[in-house]
Amino acid sequence: MSADKLVPNLTVSPSWLSSGDSVTLNCSVKYPDVGWRFYWYKAIPNLPITFYTMEPLPGSSNGTEQPYFIVYGQTQTAGYVCKAARGNPQSFTYDSEVKFVWSGATLSVSPDRAQHFITDTMSLSLTCAGDSAEWTVNRFSSSGYLTRCATWGSMTGPTCYINGQSSIDGVYWCETATGLFSNAVNISGTYNNAIVDFPVHPVTEGQPVTLRCKWTTELNLAVISFYKNDKLIQNDTRGEFFIPAVSKSDEGFYKCGRKGRMQRSAGSTSPASWIQTSTTQIRLLQMVRAHLRAFLIGLWRIKNFLM
Q1: How many whole angstroms separate alpha carbon 271 and alpha carbon 67?
Q2: For the residues 282-300, what does the mean pLDDT come to?
Q3: Where are the beta strands (DSSP E) in 31-130?
Q4: Burial class (CB in 10 A: 0-12, 13-18, 19+), 241
Q5: CATH class given for the domain over 197-280
Q6: What is the CATH number of domain 9-101?
Q7: For the chain, which residues make up each domain, given as ranges?
Q8: What percent of the chain lies above the pLDDT cut of 90?
């Protein structure tokens, strides 16, 4: 099996940092024959271009015989990549998928909810908090495009103010040119008459959460239906659904609407949004990076074809 047909698998431990932690990187290939050397990189955002360049980690420029590498004293969120090579001259594998370790940087949203009426998006803002003064907010849209706040809003200090627009759907996160990343949040907008209102951040297991059905116009004593994964879970006039202690089994797609109108009119029901627990939040950025990895591999192949 030729090395350049392989994509190595990189794992990092721990995924979440305490100050000064050492991070262990492990790189494996599908055919673990002898003779491999392993090369280790940090993923550096290439601003304002929407992909990353790879900077060799100190002490790894000549590669290592061992399939692991330890980064000492890590304090900030960072992305890592590995690749492997063998033969003389060396034949390299593709780069691994970018894998991240996470620090305490956070992205907050105001108003604090996952769904928004398109008519209200002029008041929507996203704020970065962490050990940096050079934040920008990124969006990976539902249509597959990676853009920065300046494209669809304005960045003032650590806050991005979204301009009114027809589509805000996507995954958002904070990032710096030095490689800091925040958590990611999933935000959507709708022209429907209803949204299901719950906090944009993952819910901590064991904590209570209330889902509210919000309307563009006030509905008095209307019978409101709540659905999980398209299955009716509540049908009364309260207009809210309460979960006293969230568990992983509560994860799913939730929506709400007026009784009897779930099938008659799309505008009378909210879109469905995913409620997730804090233990699964990291999957959002992993999904984004998987899409970016496919894009980068495509660029790499085009470059090598042209050469």
Answers
A1: 46
A2: 49
A3: 37-45, 52-56, 68-74, 78-86, 91-92, 99-101, 106-110, 115-117, 125-129
A4: buried
A5: mainly beta
A6: 2.60.40
A7: 9-101, 105-191, 197-280
A8: 35
